[in-house]
Amino acid sequence: MHEHGTESIKPGEKIVIIGNPNVGKSVIFGLLTGRYATVSNYPGTTVTLTTGSYNMGGVDTQVMDTPGVNTLIPMSEDEVVTRDILLKESIRLVVQVADAKNLSRGLLITIQLAEMGLPFVLVLNMWDESNSRGIHIDVEKLAAAIGTMIIPAIAVEKKGLKELREVLSQRIYPSISINYGGVVEGGIRELETLLPEVNISKRAISLMLLAGDESLKPWLKDHVSMSVIRRIESIRREIQDKFYEPLGYVINQIRLKRCERILADVVSRYHTGRSTITARLGNWAMHPVWGIPVLLIVLFLMYEFVGVIGAQTLVDLLENTLFGSYINPYMTTMVSTFIPDSFFKDLLVGEYGIITMALTYSIAIILPIVGTFFIAFGILEDSGYLPRLAIMVHKIFKSMGLHGKAVLPMVLGLGCDTMATLTARIMETRKERIIVTLLLALGVPCSAQLGVILGMLGGVSFTVTLLWASIIMFVLFFVGYMASKVIKGEESDFVFDIPPLRVPVLSNILFKTLSRIKWYLNEAVPLFIVGTLILFTLDKLGVLKVIEVFASPIVVNFLGLPQKATDAFLIGFLRRDYGAAGLYALATAGQLNPNQILVSLVTITLFVPCVANLLVMIKERGPKTAIAIVAFIFPFAFLVGGVLNFALNMLGVRL
Amino acid sequence: MDYQKSKEQRLEEDRVDEILELIWTLIEDGEATADKIIKRSEDPQAARLLNDIESKGLISTDHGSGGVAFKETGERMAGEIIRRHRIAERLLSEVFELDDRQIEDHACELEHTHVLGQVVVDSICTFLGHPPTCPHGKAIPRGECCKKFSQEVKPLVGSLTDLHIGEEAKIVFISSKYHARLDRLSSLGIIPGSVIRLHQKQPTYVIRIGETELALDKDLAKEIFVKKV
């Protein structure tokens, strides 16, 4: 089995990077290809596949970064994707990345890769962390046990990269193999005769089939006849009958036992006797008591950074100084001089103008908030705090049919709901994804909206701010709870590994923030422009006035707001932060009393965030679900606003 | 013929078992009178049976109040039956997760001496960590094994949720109905044989296996059975 080869690269052959979640695959991918990929600490963030190219001996070879897996018998969508790549792609070399301090979990994958008969190298990343924990790994012994090249590395410091590049051109087939005992081995031999030739070994596929891998069914249907599938099923059942436990579990246990034996041979531990500050902080951050002050401190720092530095200082600088004093007056003069036609003039620099509204808004107000938020979020991600946050809030989410992991899209939603809706994919079941999407669309205000709303509430009183926040949180919780009862489907298990708390690497955070800002500029800004154009058209056609006539009775009678507020809600259909901004203008003009401010803000907060968010909902959850969510949200938002107005009047509350 | 006879004997034994069991539970509830026993018994010849076992010296009846009490032999026999029944209930509910209806049916079968012998009962008791009560909260009479155990203090096998924070234990078995859950846990290294250390129980369970820290929900922790090391 032991083969070394440097035969020339065939076109289309790929290098595939594989490993457990959180082991630094994306960092190594970035180092090899030079292209950026999101580096994250939260389990399963690499949901989308990233490809890049690596120059190997003058030939551009495609490199694929795969979603993190714990086993190649898939249990999640991510794992199906990774397994399918191995099954279907033409593979030059697999680069397996493992966490040196959690070697046993990496070895479980190593064994499965070896069984597939794929050439691979094993990178032992985070070598420094394992050393500081008093773990010593005998690399040569391990290499001999597996029969492949092993490279210790510290990817974030680019250590081990040179060695990795040197072995990339080689193809080494590992020699490790496992005997699963007479019964299972007999089954493997029988199954092997029924399977077609593919690029991974029949033995590996036989083991997957024995383990009861349902996700292999579609592939099987394409490759063998129905009668063969039935034959395979009966062989599997025959063998399963001989075991008390599920076969997949039996096979996994044999593999894990083998891993343990290898580890006992190559890993030695010495006591370092010191617990580092980060380790202690990591424990406090998920402690039932100390975790709460830590959470409050994190929230406070985030508010100071995003809410004060981003939303106040930077926005002021950009909006009032750059756009207000320079760009907008200058552009208005320019446009007025060169374009005499008032229609086109308004299109660019009018009330709903592309420059004066769309660009001012998206660049001067939202960009600084979103930018600082992305930096803060990147730090939280890379420090390993997010999984601890998930632990702290698990119980709240559990009552909503979700689990602690759902906090990740929620926090991201405070930055941008559209982006957060994309990350709802980290939830494992359809039901959980729908609930997360619904809650994001319903009541998690994005940074743009939050900036406007807090500015407006800050002008009234702290009580009103607190009331607004409590009502929104209660509505979210209530809707989440009801949704978990109404929506059918499974809930997934809450079990995941907690990465150690780390000091984030600045360059990674900068990279990540830049790519997210790039995403924002490419995806979100055009939608701002489209939204503004729609408004501009509606305004020019006089449609806004017509809808206003029909909608104003609801706004005036049911919500108890002035007729002018209708305008704001109409705009709110397109972007709720635009709507909030409209209300802001009304409030500063003194046309809303504190009661009306509260009612109008609660109503607009519960609107669907924006057109972009709607499009992403359609793309991610399908048109039917998306339309159902929207059809629920708008009437519900008005209902909550109306009930609130009614309650305030009944109780005679004057805020 | 001989077989036939022993079968009849066994049937008679079973009937005695049933009535002793009934008397035990009525005594627990403080309402063991002859009238009540005859009323509650499913045996059409309950009155005859009561006379039989009284003449055999298993129980005594107070003729004034009609109150029934165990004599020493009777109490020991009834205690063993109750113990078998409740240990069986515990096994069926905790390890096999049967529903209440099935638990009751099967436990009633298992309570007889000729089904579960003394040694087996004690082994199951030890395996379950000498549970003090049945799933319904009624006391399980202690057996020989429990007396030995109370000197050693450590229960052998218990749920992860029974472990104290900071304790180390070895996983003995995982009793989950869901294959996918077993697979997921095993891919994270939670398999029988792994040594775990319990870090915290709130807000979620946090355990450490080797160098990996894992967070898991209480629902999952309940299904992991461990033995302290």
Report on this model:
The complex is a heterodimer of chains A (655) and B (229). Chain A has 28 helices and nine strands. Chain A has 655 residues and is α/β, with parallel strands linked by helices. In chain A, the strands form two sheets. Chain A has a six-stranded mixed β-sheet, sandwiched between helices. A two-stranded antiparallel ribbon of chain A has the order 6-8. In chain A, strand 2 and strand 3 form a beta hairpin. The radius of gyration of chain A is 29 Å and the shape is elongated. Chain B is α+β, with helices and mostly antiparallel strands. Chain B folds into three domains: 2-70, Arc Repressor Mutant, subunit A, CATH 1.10.10; 74-152, Orthogonal Bundle (Arc Repressor Mutant, subunit A), CATH 1.10.10; 158-228, SH3 type barrels (Roll). Chain B is 48% helix and 16% strand. Chain B has helices spanning 2-29, 34-40, 46-55, 72-94, 100-110, 118-127, 144-152, 179-187, 218-221; strands at residues 59-61, 68-70, 158-159, 168-174, 195-200, 205-209, 212-216, 224-228. Chain B has a six-stranded antiparallel β-sheet with strand order 3-8-4-5-6-7. Chain B has a two-stranded antiparallel sheet with strand order 1-2. The mean pLDDT of chain B is 81. At the A-B interface, helix 3, helix 11, helix 16 and strand 9 of A face helix 8 and strand 7 of B. Strand 9 (495-498) of chain A pairs antiparallel with strand 7 of chain B.
Class inferred from helices and paired strands of chain A:
alpha/beta
Cα Rg of chain B: 22 Å
Total beta strands of chain B: 8
In the CATH classification, which architecture of the largest domain in chain B applies? Orthogonal Bundle
Keywords:
heterodimer, A: 655 residues, alpha/beta, Rossmann fold, Helix Hairpins, 3 domains, 6-stranded mixed beta sheet, 28 helices, 9 strands, B: 229 residues, alpha+beta, Arc Repressor Mutant, subunit A, SH3 type barrels, 6-stranded antiparallel beta sheet, two-stranded antiparallel ribbon, 9 helices, 8 strands, elongated
